[in-house]
Amino acid sequence: MKKKRVQVKGCFRKNLLIVLGLLVFFCFAGVVQAADSRFQEVEGSNGSIILDSQSGLEWQRCPYGQSWTGSSCSGTPWRGIWENALQVTAQGGFRVPTIDELKTLEPYDQNVFPGNYWFWSSSTHPFYSFSAWGLLFDRCCVSHSLKDSCFQLRLVRAGQ
Questions:
Q1: pLDDT by residue (tens digit) across 75-110?
Q2: Which whole-number Å values give the CA distances from 143 to 30, 69, 119, 137, in the listed order?
């Protein structure tokens, strides 16, 4: 009997070591995967520009009118009607995105893109000329709204 207990105990220890080894492996693999995120800070931008590796688009991290502090956005975000939004551009080739470009950010990550407000797109509704498309970031809700509504902007450019 004692011999069997020793064998069982030995098997238990071996299995425990295997399980612990696998846990360490998967934890390490998870860390490597997390480091290779879909959203990456563009080098030289101090974190204010984010590259979406899936779409190849570069996004201003903060809503237009705000600036990245290294941990959050500061300042007052621009809010305006759709017609005025279309006039907005920013240094470096940034512009108002189409609704298809905005939708590429789904699922929305508040840690990468702070701000949970409606954001304009440059896309009008195909049937309602008085309406344009926008995206509510905290809910990933795409909808159209009257062009005289006041929304914020998140600007985009083609990857450099």
A1: 999 999 999 999 999 999 999 999 999 988 877 788
A2: 35, 31, 10, 11
Strand partners, 143: 134
For residue 107, how many other CB atoms are within 10 A of its CB? 5
Q: What would you report as the CA-atom Rg of the chain, rounded to the nearest whole angstrom?
A: 24
- What are the DSSP calls for the chain, one per residue? -HHHHHHHHHHHHHHHHHHHHHHHHHHHHHHHHHHS-SEEEPTTTTTSEEEETTT-EEEESSPTT-EE-SSSEESPPP-B-HHHHTT--BTTTBBPPPHHHHHTTPSP-TTTS---SEEEEEEEPSS-TTEEEEEETTTTEEEEEETTS-BB---EEE--
**pTM over cut 0.85:** no
